[in-house]
Amino acid sequence: MRASDGSGAPLTHTGRAWTFGDDIDTDLLAPGAYMKGPIEQLAPHCLEALDADFAHSVRPGDVLVAGDNLGIGSSREQAVHALKHLGIRVVLARSFGRIFYRNALNLGLPSLVCADLHAVRTGDELRVDMVSGVVENLSTARVHACEPIPPHLLEMVEDGGLLAHLEKRLRADKA
Amino acid sequence: MGATLAEKLIARAAGRETVRPGEIVTCRVDLAMMHDSGGPRRVQPMLERLGARVWDASKVVVVTDHYVPAVDAESAAILRLTRKWVAAAGIERFHDMQGICHIVLSEQGYVRPGMFAVGGDSHSSTAGAFGCLMIGIGATEMAGVLVSGEIWVRVPPTILVRWSGRLQHGVVAKDMMLALCARLGINGANYRVVEYAGSAVEALSMTERMVLTNMAAELGAKTGLIAPDAVTVAALTEAGVDQPDALDWRGDTDATYERVLDLAAGELSPQVAAPHSPENVAPVAAHAGVAIDQAYIGACTGAKLSDLRMAAEVLRGRKVAPGVRFLVAPASTRVTHQAAEDGTLATLTGAGAIVLPTGCGACAGFGAGVLAEDETCIASTARNYKGRMGAASARVYLGSPYTVAASAVRGRIGDPRELLG
Ligand code: SF4
Questions:
Q1: List of residues 6+ apart from A172 with CB closer than 8 A
Q2: Protein residue closest via CA to atom 1 of ligand 1
Q3: H helix or E strand, kind and range, residue A98
Q4: Rg (Cα) of chain B, in Å, rounded?
Q5: For residue B67, which residues of chain A lie inside 8 Å, CB to CB?
Q6: Does the beta carbon of B365 lie inside 6 Å of ligand 1?
Q7: Of B64, B360, B385, which is best to mutate to test ligand 1, by the most ligand atoms within 8 angstroms of its C-beta?
Q8: 3-class secondary structure, A15
Q9: Closest-CA residue in chain B for A97?
Q10: From the CB of B360, is ligand 1 less than 6 Å away?
């Protein structure tokens, strides 16, 4: 297990699952009508077209579990930012829209591709190891093998995202 | 073993002889494009936090299109911030309210064969029609590019889509793409490049080719590409670009494709995507008779001069059906001007069309022309996700400009071929 310096994202996480289906696009995650304002105004509307309760019931540390094509559509980073703002700490999905996936890792929201998560239910307690890709469902004692975060991005995720990572590198260059 | 066009473009940008799918390489960026929504307002605080400046202002293009013209104090503030940042950062290639970013890039001759570019917008794939590999990225990734001039990419495999034969009159590039969305699925080309070829593609004008690469985004592709040919060179010349090596940018004959799809253009009929997904596609006959409240010609996908002319061809001597709003938001000020000069606008307005300002408009629900609860619209845009164009219960169908115009005339979705001579 790699250690975390505390400022970034630790590479294991345990949290409560929120399950959603396939084809959740960026307009559902970050509705256009709220794109002008700050994230505090947008986040309460995240996924409201699918589940009006989600934004109000989600707790810091929760894990979002989705089916195929999570985050397809626009390049808007607010789709990731809104989830992060609401406290989602890890995202698992059968597949991702490619820009959403990169945005998530860049914003320090670890996201893993998981082929088989059918058995996970909202409220299950999940323990996610981002280095090995192992997801343990503590509520059902099932283990799911997911794809780990690509090795060349682990350091960035560990640093807490691309900005923190660049900040570290720029500091190191100056020193 | 030969290389695909995408592999050649990435290899050049990575300073390598060759690259293979799956490899992770770092590319030098020839051009970085941002718009008012995902651009300066998002990257400025990041650059400040890093204490860093733009690596090369001459390689950056900024376009305002999402929030133009301002409709309230917030959108006005976003535009003001954009203008101020551009001036402070010394960016000369700034196009304020002159059109939708992907269209402006092509009109200005900024995207050229052989280039590697990134854009802060998912439809950045549009530039692929010029043999430029352009990838859509988010704002934080863009901040990284602005600081370093570089980006990592995983070399994508290529899906080659070959369209043979000839399109019937009234069937266009948009119909080809809707059919392909149905065939491959909405994320069916995820992490891949889609390259288009074949006689039916070669026969398309540049603006029609741009529909193919634009909507590669709907396939989830990293980008779309078309190898440059005489049509490309003519368009570049018109944009003031003289590029002697343009025709060298093509895949080798022995390149390896992950998949080759052979499709027949001659058999294609006008296609329509039903709510709420661009892959929910059927021939127009399947939706014929659906009553509409609004018909919308707009977006980077469907409001270029060629698109407006298609609409005008249908509307000449006809009227928009009573009770239907027919909105036209030209993709650039140049398109508006050209359509005014050649009489296209007069035909449209004579039929009852309402001309809106240039910009993204209602496409992403940011601007004029959004829908009320339970309304139905047919649009020449690229996306019909639930709630994107206004109220969540609004239904948006996607079709070609021909189909949109024919539906406006009838007040119901219909086959444009019945109205074309
Ligand atoms: S017109 Fe629509 S699809 Fe094109 S860049 Fe603007 S919002 Fe995106």
A1: none
A2: B299
A3: helix A98-106
A4: 21
A5: 36
A6: no
A7: B360
A8: strand
A9: B220
A10: yes
- Is A98 close to B366, i.e. CB distance below 8 A? no
Distances (CA, A) of B77 to B68, B74, B81, B363: 11, 5, 6, 21
CA of B381 to the centre of ligand 1 (A): 8
Task: Write a three-state SS string for chain B.
Answer: CECCHHHHHHHHHHCCCCCCCCCEEEEECCEEEEECCCCHHHHHHHHHHHCCCCCCHHHEEEEECCCCCCCCHHHHHHHHHHHHHHHHHCCCCEEECCECHHHHHHHCCCCCCCCEEEECCHHHHHHHHHCCEEEECCHHHHHHHHHHCEEEEECCCEEEEEEECCCCCCCCHHHHHHHHHHHHCCCCCCCCEEEEECHHHHCCCHHHHHHHHHHHHHHCCCEEECCCCHHHHHHHHHCCCCCCCHHHCCCCCCECCCEEEEEEHHHCCCEEECCCCCCCEEEHHHHCCCECCEEEECHHHHCCHHHHHHHHHHHCCCCCCCCCEEEECCCEHHHHHHHHHCCHHHHHHHCCCEECCCCCCCCCCCCCCCECCCCEEEECCCCCCCCCCECCCCEEEECCHHHHHHHHHHCECCCHHHCCC
- Ligand 1 touching residue B282 (CB < 6 A): no
| Angle of the A78-86 helix axis to the A98-106 helix axis, nearest 10 | 50
The residue type at B305: L
Ligand 1 centroid, distance to B300 Cα (angstroms): 6
Ligand 1 centroid to A169 CA: how many Å?
A: 35
Q: Is B376 within 8 Å of B291 (Cβ atoms)?
A: yes
pLDDT per residue as tens, chain B (421 positions): 899 999 999 999 999 999 999 999 999 999 999 999 999 999 999 999 999 999 999 999 999 999 999 999 999 999 999 999 999 999 999 999 999 999 999 999 999 999 999 999 999 999 999 999 999 999 999 999 999 999 999 999 999 999 999 999 999 999 999 999 999 999 899 999 999 999 999 999 999 999 999 999 999 999 999 999 999 999 999 999 999 999 999 999 999 999 999 999 999 999 999 999 999 999 999 999 999 999 999 999 999 999 999 999 999 999 999 999 999 999 999 999 999 999 999 999 999 999 999 999 999 999 999 999 999 999 999 999 999 999 999 999 999 999 999 999 999 999 999 999 7
Q: Which residues in chain B touch residue A28, judged by CB atoms under 8 angstroms apart?
A: 385-387
The answer to whether ipTM exceeds 0.90 is yes
Which of B102, B211, B300 is the best mutation target for the ligand 1 pocket, counting ligand atoms within 8 Å of the beta carbon and taking the most?
Answer: B300
Q: Return d(Cα A101, Cα A119) in angstroms, integer.
A: 23
B71 to chain A, closest Cα gap in Å: 11
Distance CA B349, CA B362 (A): 19
How far, in Å, from the CA of B217 to the mean position of ligand 1? Answer: 11
Please tell me the distance in Å from B203's CA to the nearest CA on chain A: 29
Q: Which residues of B touch A47 (CB under 8 A)?
A: none
